[in-house]
């Protein structure tokens, strides 16, 4: 059962501008002090980012909206299980991924990840970063300047990856999670995250290289550290 929202705030709960609070502080303020505004701040903070993740994952706007609502319902219901010292972001993504997976099972007609066509609010940098990673060019976000055609090709190829590889690519390269955060979300060892990324990149490189192009492949030098 979730927290009682109208519980008076204990003395230990800090008073400070909510936008300056960390994710963890906001959740604890909400859980321990019944601070509605803290929870609303947390939802707004992740509204755009998490919705985009769910839409990519599910490939459907309405399903993504439903999954987003269910995710924060679970955050409310499970807030008493959140341990102090734990990071909120991977915990949130684990809940969101579970909700999306359950929704996918109930909607088999939808593909798990729909990256083969661009959405209006995806930036050119996001579209092309993975393409540059695959071809071994400069891999910083500022250097992501590949053509939209190649970006679309890469998105289509990502969609072809086996689901375990696709999930890791989505979390690490599109959402920017660190290896250890992706491992926590997927409940797998960090080493497995790295090996799946390596396998995914090798496959993408092979698919992009019918001839001599894109023949060298390795883990991105500046991929998020663990």
Describe the SSE topology:
Elements: H1 23-33, H2 36-58, H3 61-77, H4 88-106, H5 124-135, H6 148-160, H7 163-174, H8 179-186, H9 190-208
Helix pairs in contact: 1-2, 2-3, 2-4, 3-4, 4-8, 5-6, 7-9, 8-9
What is this structure, in a nutshell?
With 226 residues, this protein is an all-alpha fold. Helices cover 59% and strands 0% of the residues.
Structural features, described:
By secondary structure, this protein is mainly alpha-helical. It has two domains: 18-106, RNA polymerase sigma factor, region 2, helix turn helix motif (Rna Polymerase Sigma Factor, Chain: A); 124-208, Arc Repressor Mutant, subunit A (Orthogonal Bundle). Helix content is 59%, strand content 0%. It is built from nine helices and no strands. The chain has helices at 23-33, 36-58, 61-77, 88-106, 124-135, 148-160, 163-174, 179-186, 190-208. Helix 3 crosses helix 4. The radius of gyration is 19 Å and the shape is elongated.
Largest sheet: none
- The topology string of helices and strands comes to HHHHHHHHH
In DSSP terms (H or I, runs of 4 or more residues), the helix count works out at 9
Radius of gyration in whole Å, from Cα? Answer: 19 Å
Helix content: 55-70%
Provide the structure class.
Answer: mainly alpha
Average pLDDT = 75
Name given to the CATH homologous superfamily of the largest domain = RNA polymerase sigma factor, region 2, helix turn helix motif
- Tell me the domain tally: 2
Low-confidence stretches: 4-8, 110-128, 135-146, 211-225
As a percent range, the share of strand residues is: under 5%
Q: Supply the CATH architecture of the largest domain.
A: Orthogonal Bundle
Give the number of DSSP strands: 0
State the distance separating the first and last CA atoms. Answer: 34 Å
The gross shape turns out to be elongated
CATH topology of the largest domain: Rna Polymerase Sigma Factor, Chain: A
CATH class of the largest domain: Mainly Alpha
């Amino acid at each position: 059962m979730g927290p009682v929202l109208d519980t008076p705030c204990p003395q230990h709960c800090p008073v400070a501008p909510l936008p300056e609070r960390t994710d963890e502080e906001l959740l604890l303020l909400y859980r321990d002090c019944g601070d509605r505004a803290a929870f609303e701040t947390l939802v707004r903070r992740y509204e755009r980012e998490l919705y985009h993740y769910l839409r990519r994952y599910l490939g459907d706007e309405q399903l993504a909206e439903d999954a987003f609502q269910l995710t924060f319902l679970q955050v409310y219901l499970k807030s008493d299980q959140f341990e102090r010292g734990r990071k909120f972001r991977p915990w949130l993504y684990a809940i969101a991924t579970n909700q999306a997976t359950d929704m996918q099972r109930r909607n088999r007609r939808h593909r798990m990840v729909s990256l083969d066509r661009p959405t209006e609010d995806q930036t050119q940098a996001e579209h092309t970063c993975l393409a540059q990673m695959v071809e071994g060019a400069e891999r910083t976000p500022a250097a992501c300047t590949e053509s939209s055609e190649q970006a679309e090709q890469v998105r289509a190829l990502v969609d072809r990856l086996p689901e375990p590889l696709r999930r890791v690519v989505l979390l690490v390269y599109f959402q920017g999670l660190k290896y250890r955060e992706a491992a926590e979300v997927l409940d797998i060892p960090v080493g497995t995250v790295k090996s799946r990324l390596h396998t995914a990149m090798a496959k993408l490189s092979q698919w992009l290289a019918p001839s001599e192009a894109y023949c060298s492949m390795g883990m991105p030098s500046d991929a998020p550290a663990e």
